[in-house]
């Protein structure tokens, strides 16, 4: 058996383990949540987002399913409501500041605040061996800036609790700083982004903006950027790095007001975004997001996960 086959076998075994873990109910002692716990999932009308809403609602939370388009979002929520789940819909476009403002005002009026945010909304315009950059601005605005704007808008709405509020960012291994095949080639920049003490929001913004400038002048191919799905990979690298940064900043909050933030890679999931070419089911793809959102005795923050295990950035 060659290396690839062995790796595939290991992945399949781990997915089987996770499917089994999902069938084990949380004990009353572990359940820090109730029907009054409010979770918000972005980009949730289909795929991984829809499945995250489904699994959280099955655990007995109230889940706000959001999507950019109202009709498809309402239809998705209706499917879950008809299954007896406590799911409500609200329109939300994470790249539109006025949409975010309308949404946060609605949350305040109806619930007072939230306990969990899962940033799932995202886009990818490449498939197979494609690596076009004509939609780079849209990819980075949605996947990084949209996610960041949601986090900033929702932090003031996070309700104080002994269990801590939770933010989970759906990301990708393609955005790893030191991925074997897809890392940033500029060693100096990579070291700056790896340095926890020096890391700043400005540095992350400068990095993605430099790439967008190079896309415009045509020099991006010599920029040392990730080689696979360059715009998507860089947007997710920015999400991962911002998660690390916010993990450090939010850990300074006092007990009772903690917010734990982590990101994870769902794998290559069989959804519309991958052109149905993935090998991971939406149920398995959603699993780690739900696990991180509900983790009892939470103390982990600013980390990156895959299949319920921490992985390196």
The count of DSSP E runs of length 2 or more, i.e. the number of strands, is: 8
Helix and strand run: HEHEHEHEHEHHHEHEE
Give start-end ranges of low-pLDDT stretches.
none
Seen as an oligomer or otherwise, the chain set is single chain
How big a fraction of the residues is strand? Answer: 5-15%
Q: Roughly how much helix do the residues carry, as a percent range?
A: 40-55%
Gross morphology? globular
What is the radius of gyration? 19 Å
Number of helices: 9
**Secondary structural class:** alpha/beta
User: Order of strands in the sheet with the most strands?
Assistant: 3-2-1-4-5-6-7-8
Summarize the main sheet: 8 strands, mixed
| Overall residue-averaged pLDDT value | 94
Distance between the termini: 29 Å
Descriptive overview:
Keywords: NADP, Oxidoreductase. There is one protein chain. The chain has 313 residues and is of the alpha/beta class. Helices cover 44% and strands 12% of the residues. An 8-stranded mixed beta sheet has the order 3-2-1-4-5-6-7-8, with helices on both faces. Helix 5 (136-154) links the parallel strand 4 and strand 5 (165-170). Helix 2 (47-58) crosses helix 9 (282-294) and helix 4 (97-111) packs parallel to helix 5. The radius of gyration is 19 Å and the shape is globular. The mean pLDDT is 94.
Q: Strands, helices and their partners?
A:
Blueprint: H1 3-22, E1 38-41, H2 47-58, E2 62-67, H3 70-82, E3 87-91, H4 97-111, E4 116-119, H5 136-154, E5 165-170, H6 187-194, H7 201-217, H8 230-250, E6 259-265, H9 282-294, E7 304-306, E8 309-311
Parallel strand pairs: 1-2, 1-4, 2-3, 4-5, 5-6, 6-7
Antiparallel strand pairs: 7-8
Pfam family, one: adh_short
Enzyme class: oxidoreductase
Protein name: Short-chain dehydrogenase/reductase
């Amino acid at each position: 058996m060659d290396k690839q086959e062995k790796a595939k076998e290991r992945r399949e075994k781990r997915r089987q383990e996770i499917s089994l873990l999902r069938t084990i109910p949380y004990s009353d002692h572990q359940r820090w949540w109730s029907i009054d716990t409010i979770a918000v999932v972005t980009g949730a009308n289909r795929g991984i987002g829809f499945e995250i809403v489904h699994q959280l609602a099955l655990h007995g939370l109230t889940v706000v399913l959001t999507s950019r388009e109202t009709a498809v979002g309402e239809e998705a929520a209706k499917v879950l409501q008809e299954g007896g789940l406590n799911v409500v819909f609200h329109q939300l476009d994470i790249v539109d500041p006025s949409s975010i403002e309308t949404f946060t005002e609605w949350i305040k009026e109806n619930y007072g605040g939230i306990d969990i945010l899962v940033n799932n909304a995202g886009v990818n315009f490449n498939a197979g061996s494609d690596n076009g950059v004509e939609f780079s601005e849209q990819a980075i605005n949605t996947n990084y800036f949209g996610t960041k704007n949601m986090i900033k808008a929702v932090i003031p709405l996070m309700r104080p609790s002994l269990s801590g509020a939770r933010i989970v960012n759906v990301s990708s291994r393609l955005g790893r700083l030191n991925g074997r095949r897809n890392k940033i080639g500029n060693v100096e920049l990579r070291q700056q982004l790896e340095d926890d003490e020096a890391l700043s929001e400005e540095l992350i913004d400068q990095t993605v903006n430099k790439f967008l400038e190079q896309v415009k002048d045509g020099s991006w191919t010599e920029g040392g950027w990730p080689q696979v799905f360059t715009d998507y990979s860089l947007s997710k690298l920015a999400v991962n790095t911002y998660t690390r940064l916010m993990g450090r900043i939010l850990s300074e909050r006092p007990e009772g007001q903690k917010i734990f933030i982590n990101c994870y890679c769902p794998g290559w999931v069989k959804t519309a975004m991958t052109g149905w070419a993935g090998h991971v089911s939406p149920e398995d793809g959603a699993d780690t997001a739900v696990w991180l959102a509900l983790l009892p005795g939470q103390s982990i923050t600013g980390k990156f996960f895959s299949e319920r295990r921490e992985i390196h950035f």
